[in-house]
Design brief:
single chain; about 290 residues; alpha/beta; Rossmann fold; six-stranded mixed beta sheet; three-stranded antiparallel beta sheet; 9 helices; globular
Length: about 290
């Protein structure tokens, strides 16, 4: 058995035990402990006897972890993220989020689509959250300008969204989220509409910013490559209704160089192993869609 396969087997055994374990005594802890504690999360639409979107998800996400969720279309990934963001309610179970600073927002969300204000410049879009919190303009400038410079957007600070490419707009969305300094960063397939070249560049830039902040991130994607490149831990979800099929630790050290990492045999092996978990769920999801249309 390979080292990676052995790790995956061990993780499956640990997950089975964790799924039935009681919540940690005293709840989530902000420093070095659990940041997000999900216990038996369930979401139905149309009442308790309606459509079950998410069923019995239990997981702890440590503070500072880059946590990635993958699964087939329609498995409830975005629904779970919206629940974490407070944009939707869960039907059953409990969510506990440890707060370390009441003056900071609990979370910020980077959406799949373009979410910039078209009437604001790049700088004003990036500064929006800070200004809404009443932060002094001098401090706003000290926060926003270095972030724009870090992702190569400083010289476009006075441009407007319609003057930017899709990749550039997503860079600004990421800066806006990090600039507001949330406790948790929620990202819903932020790079899915981009070509592969831009995706790789943004992976590198996202990792570079994240390395300086070590912010707790929950990241949704359909791409196994993206999950392994970015994540510390990956939750594979089942086809509808969405459940946690397995949790996988990503063993690669940080900081990571995207292209160099993808050129290693251990990277390819881990991607293949995760696809083995996911393949059955993707096929089951397709069967569900085909059955609903016949």
């Amino acid at each position: 058995m390979s080292a990676t396969a052995g790790t995956l087997k061990s993780v499956r055994q640990q997950d089975a035990a964790a799924a039935t374990a009681p919540p940690p005594a005293g709840g989530a802890t902000a420093e070095g402990g659990t940041k997000i504690a999900l216990r038996n999360i369930r979401k139905t639409f149309g009442g308790e006897r309606g459509l079950v979107a998410i069923d019995d998800i239990t997981v702890d996400i440590p503070a500072g972890q880059f946590f990635v969720i993958v699964g087939p279309s329609g498995c409830g990934k975005t629904t779970l993220l919206r629940i974490l963001a407070g944009l939707d309610n869960h039907t059953g179970g409990s969510i506990e989020i440890a707060r370390s600073d009441s003056d900071r927002p609990t979370n910020a969300m980077v959406f799949q689509g373009d979410s910039l204000f078209p009437w604001y410049s790049v700088y004003d879009n990036a500064a929006y959250g800070l200004r809404m919190r009443g932060i002094a303009e001098s401090k706003v400038r000290d926060i926003v300008l270095p972030l724009l410079d870090k992702i190569g957007m400083a010289r476009f600070r006075d441009h407007y969204p319609h003057q930017l490419s899709g990749g550039m707009r997503q860079r600004v969305s990421i800066v806006r989220a990090f600039a507001n300094d949330p406790e948790i960063l929620l990202m819903d397939e932020p790079f899915s509409a981009l070509d592969e070249q831009n995706r790789v560049l943004l992976h590198e830039e996202l990792l570079r910013i994240w390395e300086t902040t070590k912010k707790t991130v929950v990241f949704i994607t359909h791409s196994v490559d993206e999950a392994v490149t970015l994540g510390d831990r990956i939750m594979v979800m089942t086809a509808h209704p969405g459940r946690s099929k397995t949790l996988i630790d990503v063993p690669f050290p940080r900081p990571r160089q995207v292209l160099e990492l993808r050129n290693t045999p251990s990277y390819g092996h881990l991607v293949y192993q995760i696809w083995e978990y996911l393949r059955e769920e993707v096929q089951r999801s397709r069967s569900q869609v085909e059955g609903a249309t016949t």
